[in-house]
Amino acid sequence: MSINTKSKIIQQIARTLGDVLVFLRPKKARELSENRITLVHMNKKNLTTQERLMRYVLVNKLEKIQDHETIAKLNVDFWRNNKATELFVETEDLFETHFLPNCTFIFDLLKEELSSQSVEFNTLVEIGTGNGYVLNYLSSEFPKINRFVGIDLSEKQVEKNNKKFSSNKKLEFVASDALDWIKRHGQGNTIFVTRDVLEYFLEPNLQEFFNEINRLNKTIFIAIEPNGSDHNFETNPNSQLYGNEPSFSHNYPKLFKNAGFNLWHFSQKPVSKGGTQTFIGAKYSC
């Protein structure tokens, strides 16, 4: 029996058991599927075997959404509410298990890029800061930068972060829409960082966001964002739907270049469930 055949049999057994459990435990099924984003991203380590089987079935039965405006609204509504804070708690271990081993290389490259710059960057802004661990980490990695701002839609999470990291005087956390904050407070000589955040922007809004940042002059942008593994930027230069949430797989090189940025780094790494992690280093045009 081939590995592929065994995998299909295991999947069929999991679906059958999951269906039975969803039927027998309707209250738990409703609880698990209360919010589709939480359902997709919940940490399976915190679930029992039965709950994992139920989740597997529920995720695969999620109704497909095709309307981009509806998707964007659902995503924004989620990240503003308390469910987002619960998700940040459930995924705290990702800082150690995913970010540190897989993503920090881009910041080593950023150090090299900064060493070749005559411009001094005095502020680093993380859009979608979540639980704040990455911003806190970056404040120790870039000691010459004296201001680190974490922006997030969740007021509750921002309040938690300000308390949790109160001893680090370089950090400040702000509850705001990213584009609104850039328009009111954005300045040049700033490094912007995102992780798994730009996937929630509609393509026109993301283009406007990049345009607005480039207008500040003397900015650098580090983007660590997911793409669908089937998204070929050459054959499909526009954004497309990705995943079960769903969110958007954007053509980041095109959008950055459209905004007037120069790319000094582009790479991709395969991740689980058929996705790709894209790493972008972009800077202002001299």
From TrEMBL:
Lineage: superkingdom: Bacteria
Keywords: Methyltransferase, Transferase
Domain Methyltransferase intervals: 125-217
One example of a Gene Ontology biological process annotation: methylation
Gene3D superfamilies registered for this protein in UniProt: Vaccinia Virus protein VP39
InterPro entries cross-referenced by the UniProt entry: Methyltransf_25 (IPR041698), SAM-dependent_MTases_sf (IPR029063)
GO MF, one example: methyltransferase activity
PANTHER family in alphabetical order: METHYLTRANSFERASE TYPE 11, TRANS-ACONITATE 2-METHYLTRANSFERASE-RELATED
Protein name per UniProt: Methyltransferase domain-containing protein
Source organism (scientific name): Winogradskyella thalassocola
